[in-house]
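Throughout our pipeline, every protein is held as a single compact record rather than as scattered files. Nothing more is needed to write down the fold, since each code stands for a local backbone conformation. The record that follows is passed on verbatim for readers who wish to inspect the format.
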Amino acid sequence: MNGKFYVSWDLVIKREYYKQNILNKKQTRCSILNGATNIVSANIQPLQNIGVLNSIAEKFSQDEQLVWVKFHIGKGFAALEKQLKDYAGKYATGDEVLLADIFLAPQLHACFNGLNLDKSEFPLLARLHEEYSQIPAFQDAMPEKQPDSPSQSTEKNDERMENTYFVSNK
């Protein structure tokens, strides 16, 4: 292209629209970064979409849905652990927040807090999750901090978050 685009599968980002360069300039890291965003956007995040959840609700009980979703998200997390292990710094692909971190942060929050995935199985992602939880912009973006989030007790929020993931097949 004309040097103004980075392309990763179906993900096209115009660099000139960003005040901060969220795409890494080093080619190898850029490839890793784009690969990580692709794993999240194509393999992990769709498993949390209502259409996918409705589809599996037709085939599985709520308990089976949890096992199914954890298994498939776990596969994506395992791929991320492997891909990022030699490139992660403080964040996913170095020491500054880049596109992969923006993709990863909400998924890690949802999976570790909502689905209760075992953090010990994904030590790098668990560490990144802790780093992201310290960033004010990421804290402000959490679902429970959104204006349309019901102000409920922590127990109610945990129940609401858990119920968000699984559709009753009754």
Summary: The mean pLDDT is 77. DSSP finds seven helices and two strands in the chain. The first helix runs from residue 27 to 44.
